[in-house]
Write a structure and sequence with these properties.
heterodimer; A: about 110 residues; mainly beta; 5-stranded antiparallel β-sheet; B: about 120 residues; 7-stranded mixed β-sheet; about 0% helix; globular
């Protein structure tokens, strides 16, 4: 079936700490994954993506890890800031641009 | 460059009415997709259009329809509105149709409330 799920619905971290948001996907044929950040009242904002031929990809303060063996995806945010507070979605790209999203993880950053 | 734009930002309708939502993609993008996001959930795929043709459809009833214009803008139409259609409707654009690795950029959405 098509489903992408998240393990933790809410994650609270202290400002300056690192955050790790996890995601499980079910379609072993998926070959492209994206993390989006959605702030209240806004549309999802692209953060970082990764192709299935990679295990790790780094951006500015963010790292995505892909474990195809267990169909698991994670987003690591370094030195989490208050502006990182949002809902984070992982999505897998199916059938030429159809995105399947998980339910989302709320990240709360405590100052 | 402007990002994906959507109109209107908010809309209130009553059951049984019809609604039309509009989307303008990022300049140079030829593919537009529509998603429905119910409060507390992730977006659900409704349609994808590329070069004015429907290229994908999600599990939504025939009350939902869409089209894409020569300038690549798009409209989403929903007939016979139900209370359950209340949601944030998101439009996303990408450069073109590909088997994968086409980053989709989202607009701010249209918040629809059906009373």
């Amino acid at each position: 079936g098509e489903s992408v799920g998240l393990h933790l619905p809410t994650l609270s971290v202290q400002e300056g700490d690192n955050s790790i948001i996890n995601c499980a996907y079910s379609n072993s044929a998926s070959d492209y994954f994206i993390w989006y950040k959605q702030e209240s009242g806004k549309g999802p904002q692209f953060i970082i993506d990764i192709r299935s031929n990679m295990d790790k990809r780094q951006g500015q303060r963010v790292t995505v890890l892909l474990n195809k063996t267990v169909k698991h995806l994670s987003l690591q945010i370094a030195a989490t800031q208050p502006g990182d507070s949002a809902v984070y979605f992982c999505a897998e790209n199916l059938y030429g641009n159809k995105l399947v999203f998980g339910a989302g993880t709320i990240l709360r950053v405590k100052s | 460059d402007a990002g994906v734009t959507q109109s209107p930002t908010h809309l209130i309708k009553t059951r049984g009415q019809h609604v039309t939502l509009r989307c303008s993609p990022i300049s140079g993008h030829k593919s537009v997709s529509w998603y429905q996001q119910v409060l507390g959930q992730g977006p659900q795929f409704i349609f994808q259009y590329y070069e004015k043709e429907e290229r994908g459809r999600g599990n939504f009833p025939d009350r939902f329809s869409a089209r894409q214009f020569p300038n690549y803008s798009s409209e989403l139409n929903v007939n016979a509105l139900l209370l359950g259609d209340s949601a944030l409707y998101l439009c996303a654009s990408s450069r073109g149709l590909a088997t994968y690795q086409e980053t989709q950029y989202f607009g701010p959405g249209t918040r629809l409330l059906v009373l």
